[in-house]
Design goal:
Blueprint: E1 21-27, H1 36-50, E2 53-61, H2 67-71, E3 75-79, H3 85-99, E4 108-112, H4 117-130, E5 133-137, H5 150-166, E6 169-172, H6 175-183, E7 191-193, H7 208-218, E8 226-230, H8 239-252, E9 259-263, H9 274-291, E10 299-302, H10 309-314, E11 317-320, H11 329-336, E12 341-343, E13 362-363, H12 368-380, H13 382-399, H14 402-417
Parallel strand pairs: 1-2, 1-4, 2-3, 4-5, 5-6, 6-7, 8-9, 8-11, 9-10, 11-12, 12-13
Helix pairs in contact: 3-4, 4-5, 8-9, 8-12, 11-13
Amino acid sequence: MSPYDLTVMHHSSHPLANPVIAVHAIFRHYHPVLTGVGERFRRYAPGLLNRGVELIVETGLTADSSDSLRSDPLVNRHPTESISAQQIDLDILHGALGRIDPTKPSPFLWQASTGSIQFLRALRSAKRQTKAKALYVGTMVEPRSVEISIIRRVKRAANDWLFRNTYDHFIASGTIMAEIFEQRGIPPQRISVIPSGVDTQRFCPVSSEEKLQIRSGLGLPPHARVLLFVGGIVPRKGVIQLIHAWKQHLANSPHQDDVLVLIGPRERQTFVTEEQQNELSCFQKEIDVATATIAPQNIRFIESMDQIEKAYQAADLFAFPSEKEGMPNAVMEAMACGLPVLTSKFIGFPKTEFGSAGNEFEFLPLSTHEMAIKIGSLFNDTDNSIQLGHKAREWAKKNLDLQVTLDRYAEVYHHLAIP
């Protein structure tokens, strides 16, 4: 049995019988700036409210924040002119603190995914002023280096102490992340493993007839073989490698109408420093060079889609060659839609949360040559692809359903806020 809380935290009464809890969740970036954790909690909000938890987003006021979003009572946007991630987090926390009435008796919590020393100190002060507890939600797995100097080791130990003594509870999306929390000195009983969850009613397979209709609406050939990628078009997502592998696949495939569809923004508004922007600019040039020799009918970029589930429902195969993740939404969405999934064994890859390789998914090789072969083999082996997709769908329904995730989050919130 795992030492971590994998199900729910026991509480004496159902959440709905308790007072509504306000959770002030701090996000450095939020819709319309796309980030995995922001989008995830945007989808969680209605379900959490039904469980007695009101999610109040505390975020920055960016140049592209629409008026409708500014006036949304669940989203408080705080001005910040800094490009420093640490300072943005501090500005948001200070802005949120200024809006809270400490005389109101209603229970509430702080929630964040930030662990810098400056932020932790400010959060400790905010907790004292508001007499509220704080929850840390992990978003990305960051392996801990072993070979570091004595000075850095001392600094890391001090940060770990502050981290575990500021937040009252920790949520990990998988056991790998939970183990890293434990390496930082956090006892297992203060860690809950809650997979991110996917709406298996929205993300679901469709009939052959519906698939053809969706393809028509997206302008995709009705009988082409479609490989899908969903995610930011940024260096760590492995898009360049996928495009090179796709060129090799096309060179060896008798099906010259095969299509690679990549859905995700090419601009990254979370890249704010000059170094990050230069890196992204160079990467975009690489993308342009890599795609220049691919016929337009064989590759297609889509910046965004409101009904992203239709992209999965129109595809035949899903590829995710990322280098580092937490619990990627896209993989869960593809599995829920019954797509055969090819994924890299990225840094932070869940031990069991996606099932097992060869059953619910298959690993995508690192080399572009082997990647191309793997894509072609799954395209050509229809029986295996169908079986893989079916098992992925069943796994998602049983282990990754959003309603279970919402139940677990609600239990944690109520347990922390109401002694």
